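Collaboration report, partner site 2.

Our partner group contributed sequences for two proteins of shared interest, and the home lab folded both. The records are reproduced in the order in which they were received, starting with the first partner submission.
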Amino acid sequence: MTRTVENAHAYDVVVLGAGPVGENVVDRVRAAGLTAAIVESELLGGECSYWACMPSKALLRPVLARSDARRVPGLAEAVRRPLDAPAVFAHRDETVGHWKDDGQADWLGSIGVRVFRGHGRLDGPRRVAVEGPEGERHLLTARHAVAVCTGSRAALPPLPGLAGARPWTSREATSADRVPGRLLVVGGGVVGVEMATAWHALGAHVTMLVRGDGLLPRMEPFVGERIAGALRARGADVRTGVAVEAVVRDGGSGPVTLVLEGGETVEGDEVLFATGRAPRTEDVGLETVGLEPGSWLDVDDTLRVTGSDWLYAVGDVNRRALLTHQGKYQARIAGAAIAARAAGDPLDGAAPWGPYAATADYGAVPQVVFSDPEAAAVGLSLAEAGHAGYRVRAVDVDMRSVAGAGLYAQGYSGAARLVVDLDREVLLGASFVGPAVGELLHAATVAVTAEVPLSRLWHAVPSYPTISEVWLRLLEAYRDRA
């Protein structure tokens, strides 16, 4: 039998959602001397820690390490055996703390943040109502700010038969402990590509079904082409330009059949739908403050919701960049802005790179896709830069010309592109695809963010023989075409 106990509490800041974004908000405001509470209905640490970034990379790390080792003479024969799937799953489980959040709870307590477990909803301006797991009710009042940091969830298309077919989403794909014989992957974005890479290497026969023309459509076309080619070369079936019209699975178990446009069918043992994200704002009380439930929240550069002087929306919920590192970046900005406003400090003059403006959300968002080969990009693609009105040039280099790449892996195959603003001779974007290119990305992010002139980049000398020498080859290619 549940009980109802109503308790009132007041804090300077109340945060809805205890994922990495919410945790960073409370960390920043506590460091500024404000009191803070955080509300979470699931595990402290959120999607990234238990069902996204951390478990997916734990699954992918042995896949990529084995792939790299197979390209090294003298080592290749030692790693010809199949992956030990149970050992990979055990490492994944350890990485996510066996889906227990004791460590996160201890850390929040150590910085003086009160944790409220249960479902939190806005209850009018500056108020949050929390329904606890045993029916207890808490009413939290925020003196300065409430931050909605509830993230996003997998969005499933409204297909006939899908609701009862028990499809995988990103959560099931990163937490499953059995390798399906045949895995159907619907979608060609980051989740689809990474999970196709992981589960194929673990022993599943993977069929990818992509509505668009290629994989990773937000990156340069050559990136998705190389990854699709590599997946096909390893035996995966990658189909583009196809649409799923229905799902058939008797009783929600056994084989699953996808009906494609035109009537063709494809059968698998499990199906992963990686078809986008939706904001987790459908039941957080937005209607009590005049906002639409289930909507993405518009914010200014301090992450304050448009039209409000107390409500903030940080991370995925504002749809600026659905990436953990960007959400944590926004949280640092929002925490600083909340603390400054609470102290009565002016925020004027903070842009473009001050502590109160999340301007990196616009043209300097980095992303690594842990596929095989890896993909990494920051800033604008060539098409995006052209559409934005810049006068641009693409500078392309085949990474086989880089001595360090050949040493890293025999038969190294990769490509790099810079997008150059010809009027200012600065970088607008950079893209890489190939083994280990994720480690090249931060240098590109610094160059794009700081708008470093190409004339200065000539004096940033890459170490020889490393893969980073691709920077010299790119600058030489630009110079030789000038």
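Second partner submission, folded after the first:
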Amino acid sequence: MNGVKSSVAVNQHSCHVRNGSITEGRQKEVISPEDINRGILPDTTAPVSSRMQELLEGLNEPGDCGNPIEPPSWLDRQLFNRGRDFYHRYLFCMSFSEVLALVFMLSMMRALRPLMYTGRSDSPRKALRRYFSTFQHVTAWHEGDVWDPADRAHKDLLSVRAIHNRLSGVFNSSKEHDRVWNTKIQDKGHEEPACPFYHTIREDLKDQAGDGLPLEGPDNPPFFISQWDMSLTQYQFMGLVVAHPHKMGAGAATDEDLEGLVHFWRGLGWLLGVDDKYNFCRGSLAEVRSLCLEVERLVGIPALAKADWNYEHMTLSLVTGLSHLMHTLSFEAGFRYVAYTLDLDIPNFISRMSMQGTIKYWLMRFAIGLLYYFPGLVIRLSRMLRVATAVFQKRYANGMNERGGSKTGELYPVTTPFTY
């Protein structure tokens, strides 16, 4: 997008604020334990928090603010490493939550349309290759030392940051912006089937979602890969675990563990170019948890209630592809688990589920429930996931390269909040 177009978008968003869609001066509310377990805000009709207002100011700010690669003054190395250790021990839970976050947040058009436009994840095979690469990125970041310039993890993270900048320039250019924003999955040859699920999703959620926040519209086009988008990327990687630890299999984690996870992603956000003002993980555990729940209620769920064939096809491709690694995954089971996590009532969707989808959903519930009573299992499951992914990488790497995948050792970018 050119500079004039960007400034217009900024001014239009400011009008949203002045017209009262966003109430100023609201203090951060601390969510009660009961509401945390239910996954809801105490008053879903309340104005947005001051912290959310702050994040919204980044809607039209470029995603890389130019942070230096040196550690910021607020970095607590001990707490950061505690987050790395948590990620290592709870890798199974983190991976599970990241997949569910995609099922949830792919409904956001400002994130989904660039994915459709690039055409690199609109089939199960392509989606598997793309999101498996994302897994490799994040694994490298928590297993290496991102603060050491000589470490592979540091170099990999900075390469992702550079790719973000390049893609932002492409998507926001005067030549490509309108094409990206107006793309549809039918343009890629994926016609809508006779009985899709998205009509059912809309029917179930129409009275539970609300209007949501006015993030973009015909007269207020999005700035792709903005500070806001990068902030939601952080939510996608840690938000469900922080806001709903029991439902993600991390019920045995302590507050200190989760504080480490939050600080870990605050540090990664800094290195990816997220201004600390817009860093989703800035603040105490209670504040970040409240922000997670607020994003879910005021951004994610309203977007999900407007699901269409674009969302359903891309999510179906994602989950079908990843089911080669996590065999209990399916679109039906994954969506129902998201609804369970967010305390959403979806009777019509459940009535349409296949027997196989229902069985997979209850297998998820059973497995995650076991982790609460037998927390030692999560270490074994995380180890099994590492072995499975190593086998997968070795088995399919050459085939991917032959079919036009990445060169050996080259990974796809982790972007906002998904991979393009």
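Feedback sent to the partner group on the second submission included the following. Residues 3-402 form one domain. Residues 1-45, 400-419 have pLDDT under 50 and may be disordered.
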